Amino acid sequence: MPYCRRCGTKLEENARFCYKCGTPAGNFISAPAAPVRSLRHDPLFWIVTSVIVIVLVAVVVSVVVFAPIYEVTFNKTNQDSSSGVNTLNLNFQSDNAQVNIITQNVTDKNILINVSAEGSRSIFGSENSIQVTFTNESSNGVLTVNSKVIQTGLMTNAHVVCDIYVNPLLKLNLNVTSTTGEVSLTANAPATVQSLNLEATTGTVQANLERNVTVSGDISLKAQIGAVYYRMNKAKVQGNCTINLQSATGSVDMEITEEKTLQGNLQVNAATTTGAIDVGLQIDGDVGAKIVSQTGQFGSIHVDKENFSGNQSPIQSNNFPAQSNIQINNSVSSFGDININASYVSSVTPSGRN
Hints:
This protein is mainly beta. It has one helix at residues 43-66; strands at residues 2-4, 28-30, 70-80, 87-103, 111-121, 130-139, 142-151, 155-166, 171-187, 191-209, 213-215, 219-225, 228-233, 236-237, 241-249, 252-258, 266-274, 277-283, 287-294, 301-306, 308-310, 315-317, 324-335, 338-344. A hairpin with a 2-residue loop joins strand 6 and strand 7 (142-151).
């Protein structure tokens, strides 16, 4: 579109004179073109480009640093063979492992801890990906062992197994925890458990006590996120002992069989925030039992009983109270059911006579 050079008036394409000032058409000029701005001079362009470059570099670096390149295997054993020991105090901690505690005498060792691992490490990962500490001190017949297993360096797909063998001839005080993984105790040899604390932040916790085991102190099994399993098959009980089974998010499963008189009474406290509680109880002889249960608003109690009186809560064996008694307290504070299967094998009257 032409414009008058003198006064700047916009004119028609075929105009010969400016209708405003009369200047001839030869003095007309075209309107100046709008300036084109290069993207290279736009600050936003450079900001976006920089962000994209940083993200791409971070991705490449992460792949190089963390990509598994080298296979890693690890094996280490620590042990104690001190003489004159009658009691073992064990404090064991791991950050991510499967921890197995076994009551077994391994060539007259008081304790033997074997740590094995398989996994991969990156190009920048440390060859020493597993760190094991072990200290042992004996005094007045008491052996105290402190041990820790920690993953170090950049190790991926790691599978760490800690096998802990404890001499069943010793009085056992076991405190074993793992941040992530599984903690389990298998006690099938004659042993005396004075205290037992098994705990996992995320994972499974379980204990299996067979008939030759003597329980003379308190037991605690705890998982923040995960399941808790407790099995007690005709174990001996000395004194009044308490068993605490707890899971914040997960289930609690117990199976207790006691058919002979206990040398004391047993109290079991099972609690979950969100998760079911399953109780399997079989008693006989001079062992009585009472079970008290409480659920949250969205839970229910299911009972299958034999020679037990009561409806859902409480229920008690027909010989309760007896010479030795087991009391079980179940509590679900939020979501979850309580399932009970309780049996007193012999048919007795409430007075305790056949």
